[in-house]
Amino acid sequence: MNSQLRRTILDFGPLLLFFAAYKVAGIFAATATVMVAAVGAVCVGYWLDRKVHPIPLATAVIVLVFGGLTLYLNNDMFIKMKPTMIYALFGSVLLGGLYFNRPLVKYIFGAAVTLNEAAWRVLTRRFGLFFSPWRFSTN
Question: Of 31, 46, 63, 138, most Cβ neighbours within 10 A?
Fold first, then answer.
């Protein structure tokens, strides 16, 4: 199997399983399903590549925390907060990388796009601001 296709399946598989379980059994069963699937995706990714990829790992940790709160407190608000937390983490990491003079988008898209350092910094800043939590402020 193509490594990019395999990576895509591992990244989006838990989400697809979440939607399928939600359709069949509701939010709490879907939450348990996505928790197991996220950990499974990290484990399978490690088994295939012999390294842990940081994005699926961070997603799995957030899914476990917010999914665990959802199931423990029997309140679906926590799993609904998960996408916001993932975007906030991603935006913060990108902007933090700029603070330390490391345009992290270059490491994500570097193999596909050729840009100079100034352009990588601008692109990283734009992605970081797009995913930042204060972008959603209603003030």
Answer: 63
| CB-count exposure of residue 122 (10 Å: 0-12, 13-18, 19+) | middle
Q: Please, is 27 exposed, middle or buried when counting C-beta atoms within 10 Å of its C-beta (0-12, 13-18, 19+)?
A: middle
pTM: 0.71
Write out the chain's pLDDT in tens, 139 residues.
677 788 888 888 999 999 999 999 999 999 999 999 999 999 998 998 888 887 788 889 989 999 999 999 999 998 888 888 888 888 888 899 999 998 888 887 777 778 888 999 999 999 898 887 665 555 4
Which residues in 48-104 belong to E strands, given as ranges? none
Amino acid at 130: F
Closest to 79 (Cα-Cα) out of 33, 24, 25, 138: 33
DSSP helix/strand/coil, 113: coil
**Polymer length of the chain:** 139
CA-to-CA distance for 136 and 125, rounded, in angstroms? Answer: 17
